[in-house]
Amino acid sequence: MSTIKIEILGAGCKKCQQLEANVKEAVANLNLTAEVLHVTDPIEIAKRGVMSTPAMTINGRVVSKGQVINAKQIQPLLQG
Questions:
Q1: CB hemisphere CA count around 35 (13 angstroms)
Q2: 16, 23, 56, 74: which is the annotated catalytic residue?
Q3: Is 13 a catalytic residue?
Q4: How far is residue 53's CA from residue 75's CA, in Å, rounded to a whole number?
Q5: Mapping DSSP to helix (H, G, I), strand (E, B) and coil, where does residue 63 land?
Q6: Is the peptide bond before 42 cis (omega within 30 degrees of 0)?
Q7: Is 64 marked active-site?
């Protein structure tokens, strides 16, 4: 199985950090190999079509924006 690339999009605020922690928890729960990156550059975030943060992409596809989803909500996204 290939490595999943997950990006957290946001300025690094508390919500962004919480989303990143939730992503890492979901990855660990599923025993997956994932590269978790944090994109803080507003221009890069806008290029992905995201106007509300925090947001999350999986392999380049935006799957969540404007909210902090928990690990249980993230797990099906990683498996899908």
A1: 8
A2: 16
A3: yes
A4: 20
A5: strand
A6: no
A7: no
